[in-house]
User: Fold this.
Amino acid sequence: MKQIVIVGAGPTGAALALLLVKRNIKVTLIEAAKSFNRIFRGEGLMPSGLDAIAQMELSTILKNVPNRQLDGWEFIIEDRQLFRVDEPMGADRPCTLVSQPPLLETLIRECQQYQEFEFIQGISVTDLLSKEDRFTGVKLADGREIAADLVIGADGRNSVIRQRAGLELVKQPKNIDLLWFKLPAHDRFVKDNLFCAIAKNNRGFSVFHGAEAGKLHLAWVLSADKKIDLKNTNWAETFAALSPSWLADHFRSCADKIETPIKLSVAIGRCPRWWKSGVILLGDAAHPMSPIRAQGINMAFRDVIVTANHLVPLLKAEASQEAIDLALAKIQAEREPEIIRAQKLQRNEAIRAELIKNNPIIRSLLSLFAPLVGNIIKQKWVKEQYEMRQGITEVKLVV
Ligand SMILES: Cc1cc2nc3c(=O)[nH]c(=O)nc-3n(C[C@H](O)[C@H](O)[C@H](O)COP(=O)(O)OP(=O)(O)OC[C@H]3O[C@@H](n4cnc5c(N)ncnc54)[C@H](O)[C@@H]3O)c2cc1C
Assistant:
């Protein structure tokens, strides 16, 4: 029986492991982190990601994982609402926030029902093993070596597998840093969970109610704030100064409960080549995604489906290594167009947001004429979101 080693139990690695073991394929999944709670993990799933979950027959599992639907999107510029759009924006499912640590734990528990599954947690993979011109397994930090017919690098944006395989990552030129805050929720977000993007005085942030009960998430972009004194900033006042009065009052009233933020470096890019003989990169390891419009987990699940479609028949038939390598090229060819397009759409959104944030004339005009132009801008924005919400290419699980 062929042995697959998957490195990284994020959405890509955990979902792929489950699809494979359910089809009687032997998988060793290796996760560096001791607990899924230790790392920051995104939550937003678009209709295309929820569709992938349904195709993988995981919708019932999802019901037992804390999740919360988004009710809409709101853009506030210089204290004035530019527009609001209600979910599901023409789709059959609304964008939904799903708490990732319990989702991953649930996927791993499901995998553990199958004897083909082995999980090694709390130890990182440090290197690839190779023989002649093929990668043949992985080396762990504790010195263990695990042989594999195929290594799948699902180890995220700083992928060790990518580096050890000598696969290049072409990064988008402007990476950003984010501060990610959590704070108590305001009633208004509990009743009407808007993803609010706020821009004022060359600054801006996004805020929404996360999957976890009673918690707001707030993302603050650091790129334009290089001089900000992170330790001594009064964050409640900083957020309040940019917010409409009801939200400003909330920030001030819960000032002492705003949790210390996590600093996240957002690296965005794509590998020109995702594979070499015996190894393939998937998810963020192959194409680190920007957080804009919650694409990364959705793309990860869709990579997983396409990979299963190509690999399962070959692995079951004990196909030759050459046939497996050929399938790796096909996986990249099938997934690449969607990734390129999604990253382009994310970049367009980022450029537009920067323009609004940094240009006082545009902000003033948008705010002043919001009642006149808001609806036109809304229609255009909704149209542009279609591909990022529904997916760009057709992805159907056929194995
Ligand atoms: C601030 C921010 C917010 C985001 N929000 C969203 C969102 O709301 N919705 C969305 O769809 N996407 C979001 N994203 C993107 C999303 O998080 C990623 O695209 C997605 O997590 C990729 O999944 P993955 O499994 O490929 O990688 P990851 O989720 O990064 O998982 C990789 C796993 O590999 C493990 N690992 C790493 N190195 C090793 C090693 N050497 N050995 C063993 N294990 C290893 C890690 O511990 C980790 O568990 C966000 C990204 C950022 C930066």
